[in-house]
Specification:
Blueprint (H helix, E strand, L loop, with lengths): L2 H13 L15 E14 L6 E7 L8 E4 L3 E8 L9 E3 L23 E7 L4 E6 L4 H4 L6 E6 L8 E10 L14 H4 L8 E4 L2 E2 L5 E4 L4 E8 L6 E5 L4 E6 L2 E8 L2 E3 L4 E7 L7 E6 L6 E8 L30 E9 L7 E4 L2 E4 H9 L2 E3 L2 E2 L11 E3 L4 E8 L5 E5 L4 E6 L2 E2 L5 E2 L1 E4 L4 E7 L4 E7 L2 H5 L3 E6 L1
Parallel strand pairs: 1-4, 3-8, 9-13, 12-20, 21-27, 22-25, 26-35
Antiparallel strand pairs: 1-2, 4-6, 5-7, 7-8, 9-10, 10-11, 13-18, 14-17, 14-19, 15-16, 15-18, 19-20, 21-24, 22-23, 27-33, 28-32, 28-34, 29-30, 29-31, 29-33, 34-35
Bound molecules: CU-O-CU linkage (C2O) and copper (II) ion.
Length: 474
């Protein structure tokens, strides 16, 4: 029974905020308003380079940084100035009410060209988040529609400076124009569509992206992976990288050799820059598929700010997340199959039993979750599973494919409690977990947010190719 969705379709428009909601007092402390306009725009990837065509928020790639305080009441008005293209905005990682989640046909109707939609919600968690459309996201995100969303803590950890890097990529031709080859089955059924130019805050990654630092300074570096498919594995030789938050949620500070970031994921680092004034250091991506320089850390000649390192950073205050109790949780299994190198898959496609190998090319579907696949936000598809509000839930995610998948749940955070059937020590809170090929991962959460929530692979071509479903909390 898809009660929640049918109810939405009958009554959703008004309830979901299409009509103006009674106003929030603008002057009141803790309420903030922003306007995001999605439109067409051009930007050079390098200072001397040609112009690249983008779809972007407020004529900028990435879109403007939205900076909130924990506890804020926010209103973000989204204007759709794209020509002939519907869109929505999803607030990746924010625990918003279902109607504000920005998923077309599940939580709202798409925003038509020339129309606007008003998203209003309370910001429950501090941390590093981001926003992007959920409509044809495998095209709209790589076209440039994404931006950082930062929620400040009441008591932030002390650093000298904070820097946000939005990492992504773009596929362009020799003239710098975006190549219009979105949604090819070759990308859908493999590792996704990788761009040929990696971007750091909208600029071509590499030698020319310089992060100027002063010796002795302590920086909080917030990293966001907004690429549709690229998995980053970053390294900064000669420096100690302390992770203090994953997907926005505080962890006990942890030293990292490499920073692994699947699509959708975030990490907050605290870095003490203790090398000699005037020295240069490379930030490298050492992932086997990418391998390249991301940026250059360039020390100023100034006298060091301090001569001794500050020691390990303090732990950030935790957000108030409902603690899952694995002992009393209900277990649900979700099996993932498919892909170009996968075994033949028989599954339900939009509700009908089908041999996926036979329809792959034509239907552009290549993946199943629990032996079923659906086209993006297909209206008649049932949720993968139903749970009751307040249930403690363990999802056993069984990756029967030869590919990695960053699995993202909307509306909730989960703890990663097991890998390949063994309990893990640091049970990190995440909203996106990267499953390695053939790995199984157990995640636990309390289903405390009412509504129908997306659960999908954040390699956006995989999501489009069947690896998306919903979990209904009733
Ligand atoms: Cu970042 Cu369902 O999305
Ligand atoms: Cu995937």
């Amino acid at each position: 029974m898809t009660t929640s969705r049918r109810d939405f379709l009958k009554t959703g428009a008004a309830a979901a905020g299409l009509a103006a909601l009674p106003g929030i007092a603008r002057a009141a402390a803790g309420s903030r308003e922003f306007v995001l306009s999605a439109g067409h725009f051009e930007q050079a990837l390098a200072p001397d380079g040609p112009m690249t065509d983008f779809w972007a928020f407020n004529r900028s790639v990435p879109g403007p940084e939205l900076r909130f305080r924990k506890g804020d009441r926010v209103k973000v008005v989204v204007n759709n100035d794209l020509s002939g293209i519907d869109t929505t905005v999803h607030w990746h990682g924010l625990r918003v009410p279902n109607a504000m989640d920005g998923v077309p046909y599940v939580t709202q109707y798409p925003i038509k060209p020339g129309e606007m939609y008003s998203y209003e919600y309370e910001v429950k968690d501090s941390g590093t988040f981001w926003y992007h459309p959920h409509q044809i996201s495998f095209e709209q995100v790589p076209r440039g529609l994404y931006g950082p969303l930062i929620v400040e803590e009441d008591a932030p950890i002390e650093v000298d400076r904070e820097v946000v890097w939005v990492l992504s990529d773009v596929r362009v031709d020799a003239k710098g124009r975006q190549i219009n080859d979105f949604g090819r089955i070759l990308d859908i059924a493999n590792d996704g569509r990788l761009g040929n130019v990696v971007l750091v805050n909208g600029q071509q990654a590499g030698e020319k992206v310089a992060l100027a630092v002063r010796s002795g300074e302590r920086m909080r570096l917030r990293l966001i992976n907004a690429a549709s498919a690229r998995i980053f594995r970053l390294r900064l030789a000669g420096h100690t990288l302390h992770a203090v938050a994953l997907d926005g949620q505080a962890i006990k500070p942890r030293e990292l050799e490499t920073v692994d970031l699947g699509p959708g994921m975030r990490v907050d680092l605290v870095v003490d820059f203790m090398a000699a004034p005037g020295s240069e250091h490379k930030v490298l991506d050492v992932d086997r598929r990418s391998r390249g320089q991301i940026a250059r850390v360039s020390y100023l000649d100034d006298a060091p700010l301090r001569d001794k390192p500050l020691g390990a950073p303090m732990q950030l205050a935790a957000n108030d997340l409902p603690e899952p109790d694995v002992a009393k949780a209900i277990d649900h299994y979700i099996v993932f199959e498919g892909g170009m190198r996968g075994s033949p898959v028989i599954g339900m496609i939009d509700g009908k039993p089908t041999n996926i190998q036979e329809i792959m090319e034509k239907e552009k579907l290549a993946w199943t979750m629990n032996f079923s696949a659906q086209h993006e936000h297909a209206l008649l598809h049932d949720p993968l599973l139903y749970v009751r509000k307040g249930d403690h839930v363990v999802l056993r995610l069984i990756n029967q494919t030869d590919f990695a998948h960053p699995m993202h749940l909307h509306g909730h955070f989960f703890r990663v409690v097991g890998v390949d059937g063994r309990p893990v020590v640091e049970q990190d809170w995440r909203d996106t977990v990267l499953m390695a090929p053939r790995q199984s991962v157990d995640v636990a959460f309390v289903a405390d947010n009412l509504g129908e929530w997306m659960f999908h692979c954040h390699i956006l071509e995989h999501a489009a190719g069947g690896m998306m479903g919903t979990i209904a909390v009733e």
